[in-house]
Amino acid sequence: MPAVTVTDITSLARVPEPGPASVDREVRSVTTGPSGFEGEGFPVRRAFAGVDLAALDPFIHMDQMGEVDYGPGEPKGTPWHPHRGFETVTYIIDGEFEHADSHGGGGNITNGDTQWMTAGGGLLHIEKPTEELVRTGGVFHGVQLWVNLPKARKWVEPRYQDLRGHQSVLLTTPDGGVLLRVIAGDVAGHQGPGSTYTPMTMLHATVSPGARLRLPWRPDFNALVYVLAGDGTVGAGRRPISTGQLAVFGPGDTITLDGAGKQESRYAEMEVVVLGGAPIREPVAWGGPFVMNTRAEVLQAFEDFQAGRLGTIPAQGVPAQGVPHGDVGGELL
């Protein structure tokens, strides 16, 4: 871990050191994501569990999938299920996943690839390990993020973006101690490949032991750091953080984090996902696989699914009946 690396980090563009007038964001909270199982039984960590949606806005939910080393025949996925009202961003760090949806999108993503699916007005989709991964087993590790859509965009036509790992913008810090992979948004004038309806930034950073990242960050965005692996600190006050924990930052224009000088034997470096976006500040009604603005809209989505109005799936699969399966079940808020 991870798949996307560089031979000579000194060849990459540098993120500039924030100036003396920059304002470090203070850490408001550090929470630990509980472990669970999703779909047909693959292990996940619920990265945002226990955090107020207002602090996450425009994000709704995030699962760290794995890291797990499967034996032959063990890899698992999800059955066909519906979505409406938001976008799913599936980033595969190690392993391989196969996607398909009722709107014609899909394909295989592996080792640094990202599948960006805009559910919009509604569709059905499936996520499963490839036949090769099922046959041989192997390491599987990734992240799935849910990005809310504003009311004016909730009914857009579904779309699919296939972002290959080599398309991510690679950057480093002035001393070369951190490798940044920009998946979406702008970091110091460098634009990631993902096209977003909601203004946001998503990146994966590898922080060498003892290295520091001081990252310029749009003051109108929120700021979240989730630790995929390793130990370190967040904020200028160096608050401890470790694997499976999420830091929520307050206002400012700079994110600071440090890798621990010595990592445990399983991890050579600290791996983090950094997220931020422009808050939508609209009511959120979330029920299972549907994220809308009102309870009535969520109930309508369930009704539309049951009536077959969210699309048609290939003959080899049948969507769940009754209450639909979702990547996570949120209560109807």
Automatic annotation (TrEMBL):
Residues 15-36 are annotated as: Disordered. Its cofactor is Fe cation. Residues 203-310 form the Pirin C-terminal domain. Binds 1 Fe cation per subunit. Belongs to the pirin family. Fe cation binds at H81, H83, H125, E127. Residues 43-147 form the Pirin N-terminal domain. Keywords: Iron, Metal-binding. This is Pirin. One of its GO terms (molecular function) is metal ion binding. It comes from the Bacteria. It comes from Umezawaea tangerina.
